[in-house]
Design brief:
Layout lengths: L1 H9 L4 H11 L5 H21 L15 H5 L1 H11 L7 E4 H8 L5 E2 H13 L5 E6 L12 E2 L2 H8 L3 E4 L1 E4 L2 E4 L2 H12 L2 E3 L5 H4 L3 H10 E2 L2 E3 L2 E3 L12 H4 L41 H10 L1
Parallel strand pairs: 1-3, 1-8, 2-4, 3-5, 8-9
Antiparallel strand pairs: 6-7, 10-11
Helix pairs in contact: 2-3, 6-7, 7-8
Protein name: Putative ribonuclease ZC3H12B
Organism: Struthio camelus australis
Family: Belongs to the ZC3H12 family.
């Protein structure tokens, strides 16, 4: 009750108006329902003010939301969350994976990296790191074509892109494993990995890395020049994309229909209904389930 009261006070509503709405709807009412009722009262007072404007010199100004927020209270909540950059997780982008994906596996397209970085910048993220092997700075060759190579230099100057070390020893290139840089930084900073790679070799190195990759890997698709991550990164029963990118989920998740079979359900992770008893369990594959049962 107090949290709803404080939230509505921050939006500029009067205390007696908020209290009247909460008493009408009850303390268990959803915040969106409370906002909708406050908006309705604001519109009502606005129409009364316009009606009395002809008989009085002062106009009545409602203590409600601005017109944009009145039109969509849910949108105003989301906009407020997006503006809070302190709540956004750090982003670590697998540059080679993104560039090759944008180049249709035929070439290293640096423009794909720029599109992914721009998408996260528009979302309000400030802590973005892209890893690319240093040998990608070399001149493009027919067997390894690179397009828009100047983007790599530009992102490096902006302190967004980092080149992983590589050197030549007796004419042979020695390359450091860039995937380990990506997973290690994301794990240490409690961030998000942007890649279509599952990093199975690194999952087997450390148990904590395996759990982290399963819960923090953000896959994506390119539709021409549009970077598109999924709205449900961890499946239909997982968090939304907006909450997945945040340290503390703020936007309320849509209510899911519970499974009628409950704990007796035999469909496992393939069940399309919501299982509250499985909420904190990672979505393991069938192979992982067999390995665990074999150990037991």
């Amino acid at each position: 009750y107090q949290a709803k009261m404080d939230f509505a006070l921050k939006l500029g509503y009067a205390g007696d108006q908020i209290q009247a709405v909460l008493n009408k709807l009850g303390a268990d009412a959803l915040i969106n329902d409370v906002l909708a009722e406050l908006v309705r009262l604001g519109n009502k007072s606005e129409s009364e003010g316009q009606g009395s404007a002809s008989t009085t010199t002062s106009t009545l100004v409602p203590r409600g939301l601005c017109p944009k927020e009145i039109a969509s209270p849910e949108l105003s909540l989301e906009d407020e969350v997006v503006d809070n950059s302190d709540n956004l997780r750090p982003i670590v982008i697998d540059g080679s994976n993104v560039a090759m994906s944008h180049g249709n596996k035929e070439g290293f397209s640096c423009r794909g990296i720029q599109l992914a970085v721009d998408w996260f910048l528009e979302k309000g993220h400030k802590d973005i790191t892209v890893f690319v092997p240093a040998w990608r700075k070399e001149q493009s060759r027919p067997d390894a074509p690179i397009t828009d190579q100047e983007i790599l230099r530009k992102l490096e100057k902006e302190k967004i892109l980092v080149f992983t070390p590589s050197r030549r020893v007796q004419g042979r290139r020695v390359v450091c494993y860039d995937d380990r840089f990506i997973v290690k930084l994301a794990f240490d900073s409690d961030g998000i990995i942007v890649s279509n790679d599952n990093y199975r070799d690194l999952q087997n190195e450390k148990p904590e890395w395996k759990k982290f990759i399963e819960e923090r890997l953000l896959m994506y698709s390119f539709v021409n020049d549009k970077f598109m991550p999924p709205d449900d990164p961890l499946g239909r029963h997982g968090p939304s994309l907006e909450n997945f990118l945040r340290k503390r989920p703020v936007i309320p998740e849509h209510k899911k229909q519970p499974c009628p079979y409950g704990k007796k359900c035999t469909y496992g992770h393939k069940c399309k209904y919501y299982h509250p008893e499985r909420a904190n369990q990672p979505q393991r594959s069938v192979a992982d389930e067999l390995r665990i049962s074999a150990k037991l």
